[in-house]
Write a structure and sequence with these properties.
CATH topology of the largest domain: RNA Polymerase Alpha Subunit, Chain A, domain 2
CATH superfamily of the largest domain: YbbR-like domain
Number of helices: 3
Shape: rod-shaped
CATH class of the largest domain: Mainly Beta
Number of strands: 15
Number of domains: 2
Helix content: 10-25%
Length: 231
C-alpha cells in the first residue's frame, strides 16, 4: 500500500512538473490596414514556431490549433514595406516563452483602377477554304482594378476568340485577360467586365482565278532579226 501511494505521488509530481515545448509551424493571421484603399501584398514568413511552458500534462495535451499567432496592420496608413512584431495567444494553463521569428516583413500596396482598350486575338485558323474577315466585341474598353504595382505591369487586355476549324460566322462569350510585357496574365488584377461577347465573321474563300498575260511589245528587233517567242 505504501509503495502504491509513493508511485501515485511520483506520477502526480511528474505530471505537474514544468516543461517547455515548441509548436509549429503555426500559420500567421493578420488584421489588415483600416484604410480600405490599402491591401496586403505579402507576409514573409507566413508561419512561426511558438514555444510554450506548462505542466507536462498540460503541454502534452496542447494542440497547435489552440495557439494563435497574428500581426496587427491596422495602424498602417501608407503603402510600403514594414517589419512588424508577431503577437501570440496561448491556451489557458500555459505560458508564452518565445516565438520564432519574432518579427515578419509585410508589403502593403495601394489599390487603384484604370481603363484600357481591349484587343481580340483569333486562336487557330478557320476550316480549309474559309477565312476570317473580321472580329468585333460588344464593348471596346475594360476597367482594371487591383494593387497599383500590379496595374503598372499590365500592357494590354486581350480576349482570345477560338476560330480554329470554323466554317461559319459566330458569336461567343470570351474571357478578358490582363497581360504583361511577356504576354503572361497578371494574377492580382481584376477585369470588368470579366467577359465580352465577340462576333467573328467567317466567309468562304473565293476561288482563285488564273488570268492570261498578254505581253505588249514596243520597238523593233535589230535588222535581220524577228521575235518568235516571249517567255
Amino acid at each position: 500500500m505504501v509503495g502504491l501511494i509513493l508511485w501515485v505521488g511520483v506520477m502526480s509530481t511528474n505530471s505537474q512538473a514544468a516543461a517547455d515545448r515548441p509548436f509549429g509551424p503555426i500559420p500567421l493571421e493578420y488584421q489588415p490596414p483600416s484604410k480600405s484603399s490599402l491591401t496586403v501584398m505579402s507576409l514573409n514568413p507566413n508561419t512561426v514556431t511558438v514555444e510554450l511552458r506548462g505542466s507536462v500534462q498540460k503541454i502534452n495535451g496542447t494542440s497547435p490549433h489552440s495557439i494563435a499567432a497574428f500581426v496587427d496592420m491596422q495602424g498602417l496608413t501608407h503603402s510600403g514595406t514594414y517589419t512588424l512584431p508577431v503577437r501570440v495567444s496561448v491556451p489557458t494553463g500555459t505560458s508564452f516563452v518565445s516565438v520564432v521569428p519574432s518579427k515578419v516583413t509585410v508589403v502593403i500596396d495601394r489599390l487603384g483602377s484604370r481603363r484600357m482598350n481591349l484587343d481580340l486575338a483569333p486562336s487557330g485558323s478557320p476550316a480549309p477554304g474559309y477565312e476570317l474577315k473580321s472580329l468585333t466585341a460588344n464593348t471596346k474598353t475594360a476597367t482594371l482594378s487591383g494593387p497599383t504595382s500590379e496595374l503598372n505591369k499590365v500592357r494590354k487586355v486581350v480576349a482570345e476568340v477560338p476560330v480554329g476549324g470554323r466554317n461559319a460566322s459566330f458569336q461567343e462569350q470570351v474571357v478578358l485577360l490582363p497581360l504583361n510585357a511577356d504576354d503572361r496574365t497578371v494574377q492580382k488584377v481584376q477585369v470588368s467586365p470579366a467577359m465580352v461577347s465577340a462576333s467573328a465573321t467567317i466567309k468562304k474563300r473565293p476561288p482563285q482565278k488564273s488570268a492570261g498575260v498578254v505581253a505588249k511589245l514596243t520597238g523593233h528587233p535589230a535588222a535581220g532579226y524577228t521575235v518568235t517567242n516571249i517567255v
